[in-house]
Specification:
By secondary structure, this protein is α/β, with parallel strands linked by helices. The chain has two domains: about 5-120 and about 270-280, Probable inorganic polyphosphate/atp-NAD kinase, domain 1 (Rossmann fold, 3-Layer(aba) Sandwich); about 125-260, Probable inorganic polyphosphate/atp-NAD kinase, domain 2 (Tumour Suppressor Smad4). It contains five helices and 18 strands. The strands form three sheets. The protein has a six-stranded parallel beta sheet, sandwiched between helices. It has a six-stranded antiparallel beta sheet with strand order 8-7-18-15-10-11, with helices on one face. Strands 14-13-12-9-16-17 form a six-stranded antiparallel beta sheet, with no helix packed on it. Helix 2 links the parallel strand 4 (about 65-70) and strand 5 (about 90).
């Protein structure tokens, strides 16, 4: 995989860390004139030469996208990269940056590894979300993290019927319902006490938020068949939120069909144990309680 043309995408236009990242890319690019760097017009005031500023539509025809920001930037970039299946390198300037591969201070070293071919790729499962009215498809979306089904009215619970593989699975009565990919399992799903799923696992998880029954727990399902979700009762409208970004208002009589997407998101990795490192370093996960080293005193 050769990276001769690289796009830069960022949303936090006034970030000092973003300006530093662009400066580091510029310094590295001056030493590697065979590689072209382009950025969107929104970054015009921050981009030093030789980074070129182009229109958004010209950003798509590249070999690699460098996404500078937090996990929200990575999700937005994943949607943008779908049209050409472009791999993404994440540079963290957010708070957690679980999806990012490198920090700003390590950016030039990471670029060195890329041109030497010392990297791997990680493909992530995405979900197709389709809405039907009868047999007619009226809406579709692709998500990398999750679909969040919640009431259109604040404070109202949702009542949902769920079928899996054409068979009735369960009925949820809860504040809302998350359908998360392995990538999304460390996002909102984790905050809702859902399980962490290894990124390469072909599965998704249904996580009800504040269910009315204590016996209801998150459920992991293989992404090998369709999951269908419908209104179980009338009277409360539903909002579908995709990756915390775009949304759709579900109408009475419409149903949601969820399945494994043919599209994937490809991340560039320069660390062999990136996911394990992220669990430990970014989530503070150890797998066991820490032992006190100081003697107990009254």
């Amino acid at each position: 995989m050769k990276f001769r043309k690289i796009a830069i995408i960022a949303w936090k236009h006034q970030s000092s860390e973003l300006a530093l990242a662009l400066q580091k890319i510029s310094e590295w690019a001056l030493l590697h004139p065979e590689i072209e760097f382009i950025a969107s017009e929104s970054l015009k005031k921050l981009c030093p030469p030789p980074i070129q500023v182009v229109s958004t539509e010209n950003l798509s025809k590249v070999h690699l996208i460098i996404a500078i920001g937090g996990d929200g930037t990575m999700l937005s970039t994943a949607r943008f990269a779908l049209q050409n299946s472009t791999p993404i390198l994440g540079v963290n300037v957010g708070r957690v940056g679980f999806l990012a591969e490198t920090q700003v201070e390590d950016l030039q070293d990471t670029l060195d590894l890329l041109i030497l071919g010392k990297f791997s790729t990680s493909t992530r499962l995405m979900l197709d979300i389709q809405v039907y009215s009868g047999e007619k498809k009226v809406f579709s979306e692709v998500v990398l993290n999750e679909l969040h089904i919640r009431s259109s009215k604040p404070g109202k619970m949702v009542n949902l019927e769920v079928d899996y593989n054409k068979k009735h699975l369960t009925e949820y009565w809860a504040d809302s319902l998350l359908i998360s990919t392995p990538t999304g399992s460390t996002a909102y799903n984790l905050s809702a006490n859902g399980p962490i799923i290894y990124p390469s696992t072909l599965a998704f998880v249904l996580t009800p938020l504040a269910p009315s029954s204590l016996s209801v727990r998150p459920l992991i399902l293989p992404a090998t068949a369709e999951c269908e979700i419908r209104f179980a009762s009338k009277g409360v409208g539903l909002s579908l939120v995709f990756d915390g970004n775009s949304s759709y208002e579900l109408k009475p009589g419409e149903r949601i069909v969820i399945s494994k997407s043919q599209s994937v998101t490809t991340f560039i990795r320069v660390k062999s144990s990136a996911f394990v490192d992220a669990l430990r370093e970014k989530l503070g996960w150890t797998g066991k309680p820490k032992l006190k080293t100081e003697p107990f005193s009254k």
